[in-house]
Amino acid sequence: MSQTKIHPTLARPTLESLGPVTAEEAQLLERLDLSRMPRHVAVIMDGNGRWAQKRHLPRIAGHRSGTQSARTTIETCARLKIEALTLYAFSVENWRRPQTEIDFLMQLLREYLKKEMPLLQRNEIRMRFLGRIEELPAAVQNDAREAMEKTAGNKGMVLCVALNYGGRAEIVDAMNAILREHNGHGASSRITAEQIAQHLYTEGLPDPDLLIRTSGELRVSNFLLWQIAYAEIFVTDTLWPDFNRARLLEALVEFQKRERRYGGIREGQPANEKPARVAGN
Ligand code: FPP
After folding, report:
1. 188-198 pLDDT, tens per residue?
2. Residue 141 belongs to domain with CATH number
3. Which of 22, 29, 127, 248 to pair with 149, CA 20 to 30 A apart?
4. 244 is an active site residue
């Protein structure tokens, strides 16, 4: 729904950018190497319903409380100069929920976009929406468009909200877009990995390096199927409304402990030969 390119000159984060921190956050920050942050963090915000259930509250209370965790995550990632953050807010499968819950989630998102606009602007955040946005209620589409327009000139983190999003649907949409181009221009019939990436909703963004999932489920749930090919996955038992800044810092510290090999061999390990092949297109 928008053309967003990562700004090449995002400044290095400093510890001061976070403002006052708790003792636990300070300890985690000591273990964090600010020069090796993930470029793109994706989050499956799960467990709102269980959080509410544990408190004998309606499920929607969990969603409302989850907006606070979204706020903290967005602001912290922006201040840590992470280039892109993607939040999974509503999947194509979520239409199976009761209509009252769907209506509440749509309303909550609309309220959120209005209420948090000052925070987005203050932190130079650019908004983008991933998914079949044209299938959403007209009012949500309008608010989404407005939020993108208002933040289009910002130079900081790109915040993607995945709405009516499905990983398979995204790949189907990309294939159809490529087919339309091919039909129009009689282009060659072989589709490359680059072409697919350029037609995904995330066009122009780096692939997520870190995928966080709250509430303990060990599933990918049709989220960014193409893009998470090499993402490090961090699953925490914490329910989304309890996911605070310390839990986010913990995920980032854990990410930095992982050794990323992309199917090759360990960095620093003697490799006397050149790679036999570069990953297939
Ligand atoms: C999953 O919990 C959560 C959702 C489907 C909605 C997430 C939406 C928000 C947190 C609202 C705010 C979003 C933004 C971007 C401002 P669940 O209901 O599946 O929980 P359960 O698995 O415990 O039932």
Report:
1. 667 889 999 99
2. 3.40.1180.10
3. 248
4. no
